[in-house]
Amino acid sequence: MDGAAASPTMISASVAGGVVAGVLLSRCLTPAPPAAPPHRSSQADTPSPRHLYRCDGFDGSPPADVRAAKVVHFIRHAQGYHNLAVAEAGEQAYTSWALRDARLTPKGLAQSAEVARVTAGMRFDALLVSPLSRTLQTAVNAVPSMRGKMIAEELVRERSGLNPCDFRREKNVLAQEFPEVNFDQLSSETDVLWSAERESLPALQDRCDAFLARLFEGFATKDAAFVGVVTHNDFLTMLLYDSSLQYSSSLVSVAPAQALSKRKQSCQICPTLPVCALVVY
Fold first, then answer.
1. C-alpha–C-alpha distance, residues 184 and 171, integer Å
2. Of 79, 99, 111, 187, which sits with the fewest C-beta atoms within 10 Å of its C-beta?
3. What's the sign of the alpha-carbon dihedral 13, 8, 207, 84?
């Protein structure tokens, strides 16, 4: 569920007090033994084996082997009408069908345009975007250099189900509105992932782990050194707190806590963007 005080959030890498945009992701070659995360009720609920992906500092250099390491820029969407409605009326606003597949507010459009000044100096070899309207709008406005090269990816969408704001529109409708985005990877015309029940936390965790694997194995990203991902609060929270990411000792005390604070933080890249340091290998 997206927080009420929404603004684009870029997850970046901090080096020696400065900020270098990007998260270096690297995959351990040996599968890790299964471990039961806090929200799983038993070991039997955990897929086996689970690959681990380590996080550490990023020095700004491209990875030597793009099949083993990636630099990833994560951007959370800008303010949507559902965020505004919750801020004004409380969380019951999430259940309003008037907010199905919520779009960006005028403030959100301005926020995403501001992010474009930051991304103009960044390298992107591929960009994955959640197929919900608010992330699509954020991507098109925040990373204009990748228009025509963006890939809609279901794995990075918000925690699905229950809330109409997370119920995506039909594939052909989205393709008409967002010609800058390639929707070929969506498996169905309608949103078959959404249901009247909220996606379980174990299912969301599995999706985060599937996303990490897709980064290294997917056709659009396996040969990419620098990947952008435009996504949502709950997805990022699970990815950073309770997925197969393993933080190095230099980051374990600070990275998760700073990664997705719902409180606004000062930022050396852009005043509206909270930033944290991560590297995964």
1. 9
2. 187
3. positive
Contacts of residue 145, defined as CB under 8 A and 6 or more positions apart, other chains included, come to: 119, 120, 124
Cis amide linkage into residue 49, ω under 30° from 0: yes
Per-residue DSSP letter, 46: S
| Beta-carbon count within 10 A of 69 CB | 21
Residue 235: phi and psi, rounded to 5, are: -65, -45
| Cis before 202? omega within 30 | no
Residue 152 has pLDDT above 80, yes or no: yes
Distance in angstroms (rounded) separating the CA atoms of residues 223 and 125:
9
- Distance from C-alpha of 215 to C-alpha of 17, rounded to nearest angstrom: 28
Using DSSP's 3-state secondary structure scheme, residue 94 falls into: helix
Model confidence at 248, pLDDT cuts 50, 70, 90, reads low
Residue 123's pLDDT band, with cuts at 50, 70 and 90, is confident
Facing residues of 53 across strands? Answer: 27, 245
Cα distances (Å, whole numbers) of residue 143 to 52, 119, 267: 29, 6, 19
pLDDT of residue 240: 77
Tell me the pLDDT tens digit for each residue of 124-138. Answer: 999 999 999 999 999
d(CA 193, CA 160): 7
Rounded to whole angstroms, the Cα distance separating 245 from 215 reads 13
Give pTM, 2 decimals.
0.78
Residue 48: C-alpha distances to residues 39, 164, 179, 218, 240 (Å): 16, 33, 39, 21, 20
